[in-house]
## 1
Amino acid sequence: MGDLRDHWDGVYAARPETAVSWYQARSVRSLAYITAAANKDAAVIDIGGGASTLLDDLLERGYRDLTVLDVADVALDKAKARLGQKASRVSWIVADITQWRPPRQYAVWHDRAVFHFLTRAEQRKAYVAALLAGTAPGATVIMATFALDGPDTCSGLPVQRYSPRTLAAEIGPPFVLTDETREMHTTPSGAQQPFSYVVFRREVN
Ligand SMILES: C[S@@+](CC[C@H](N)C(=O)[O-])C[C@H]1O[C@@H](n2cnc3c(N)ncnc32)[C@H](O)[C@@H]1O
């Protein structure tokens, strides 16, 4: 994971987390989907959560089984520093999602702007293998990627853009699309980036 980790650590070390293009003061849509899907005892994992404030808001609402995975420990260190003592209530994992084997299952799997960096079929296959191992039937999967008319790069890396339909085809059964939203994200520099938010429910194995 060396090169990937160096890249993302460098991105987070270069500027404040409030200045990265994907920054949101609050993860409003993700929060709404997560709180609608699961109660406070549910195991929630944020894949590629970086320094997002999603965790802050879930902790604030009483969620107590929270995990964040990211390849960049610089990003996770920023989130931990912001959370202070509350950081000890979160499980932190530094890993490349395409090489990670989940040690347990999560009721909610959230990914905003990570899957779209997987431009090679074997990376996406590995991600879906982790998703299958990390969820059970009944789990909710919330994914946000750049929409088909979104940017084709982010942070100097190429991305694969999706509509809800093409993302559903990529993720495949047993994940069934249950909700979708198009959202226009405004970056800190004022650019407009359309995202596809898609919610899946895991059916049988
Ligand atoms: C565009 S940022 C999104 C961060 C966060 N989800 C948000 O919405 O604020 C992408 C994040 O995914 C992480 N990342 C990229 N590739 C990854 C991989 N293969 N495995 C784990 N994390 C990865 C990066 O370090 C970065 O924090």
## 2
Amino acid sequence: MAAIDGATITARALKEQGVQFVYGVVGIPVTTIAAACQKEGITYIGTRHEQAAAYAAQATGYLTGRLAVALTVSGPGMLNAVAAFANAWSNCWPMLLIGGASDSDQRGQGAFQEAPQLETIRPFAKYAQLVDSPQRIPYYIEQAARSALYGRPGPVYLEYAAETILNSVEEEAVRWKPAIPPAPRPLADPQAVRDAVAALKTAQRPLVIVGKGAAWSRAEAEVREFVDRTMLPYLASPMGKGVIPDDHDQSVAAARTFALQNTDLVFLVGARLNWIMHFGLPPRWSPNVRVIQLDIAAEEIGTNVPAEVGLVGDIKAVMGQINAELEREPWQFGKENDWSYALKEKSEQNQRNTEPMLHASQVPMGYYRPLREIRDAIPNDALVVSEGASTMDIGRQVLNNFRPRHRLDAGSFGTMGVGLGFALAAQLCNPDKVVVDVEGDAGFGFDGMEVEVACRYGLPIVFVVFNNNGIGGGPAEFHPEQPMSPNALYPLAHYEKVIEAFGGDGYYIENPDDLRPALDKAIANRRPALINVVIDPEARRRPQQFAWLTR
Ligand SMILES: Cc1ncc(C[n+]2csc(CCOP(=O)(O)OP(=O)(O)O)c2C)c(N)n1
Ligand SMILES: [Mg+2]
């Protein structure tokens, strides 16, 4: 009879549950899990910090629909992953964090890296358990996979005391578990579907909001069909962008504020009325706005604004129900009405206002021109990763998405430090596509060393750093003897040299006309590259710089 250790059982159980990627930082006691995963044919990616491993795992889960793992050592290693784990909680993305822990027979004795790990992670976890024996590892991994992927997705945690990984048991004592089937796709109550369509027909100024829940559910065909059938105006949430291509005629992205303020009935399709949507409340919304809400989580219905109709179910399945209802009794809001005219006029006006900034040739550059260069340089199926304050906010307006699940950003949690880990995952899950990671210089600072990982694994990510010397912009010059702004970062830093240290390609761009050739070259080379774009530290603080043109 053969003996099998906890690490091998873990690797086989992960493989059985469809895991393709494990990201982590190894050490005592988890190194053997990483090695065992490699033996089972799972790709192991070693990052430089546990936060990047956990960001990469959750992005992999969101992009592929399959569970991915972050693997950490005990104590500080596991705790380094907690903010990233919480980001998955806030985004409702699946991931499994495996945290090594000190030997259980040393608990309370001041063991090496002993810490209250389970207690720390519990509030953010859909499921969190201590694995109590090697025999039961597959049981826990199956439970964890179902919890992470079924219903509203979320992060899950398994803790392994050192001996659970290292000890061996007889193979036949192991209680194996088969792979879980794909997540069930529950339908909504048919009466609620009829009520939702009836309510839509009574609206004067309807608005559809497409969230990343629709992207997670792979509802792109159904959502697109719904919008095309009804000709309703729609707005995408930041990561709902691309579920319908951004250049769709009914997108009111350019009139976002106006649309939210004036709509009398909103249909939330896998989008939440949280801070990103200004809670659905005045002054950003009408006090009387009616809400139709579609969500996989029943408890989400009515958050901040009571829902007139709550549709609880899988977005893809329920949008199919709604389309079937519209097939039975066709109805169209259409484009020839005051609301559509007003939205179109507002969009065109806003676009006219930004147009000069998109083509500005000033040095140092503002945000819009370099973002426009990126927009024009990347292919339609590029994955766009983004973090920063203005770099991300303005980038979201300028950079388009034409495919679902092709944008990853600071998300519902507004987290800095997500970008590099997300970019690694984006490229690993889409080896043949262009991945561009647009970073503020402060955002880059949280996880910039992960460019080494891109170079080590030969991932041809194009990193672009918007260098304005600070958090939302810093000083124009370096005067170390003067009091320094809390926002300040080292001015005109040569971030491109960070990637050059590992054999990647660096570019330092001050002149807007030099950016497109650098982007073209970086994209064509299929090698990791970092383009450091120097912009005006005052850029966002003078957003009205072109107001005289339109006054
Ligand atoms: C983990 C974390 N720490 C701190 C913050 C606060 N914060 C918000 S945006 C930001 C950085 C913005 O600067 P940058 O990335 O350079 O973008 P810019 O606005 O300058 O283009 C920071 C530190 C945060 N959101 N998350
Ligand atoms: Mg900055």
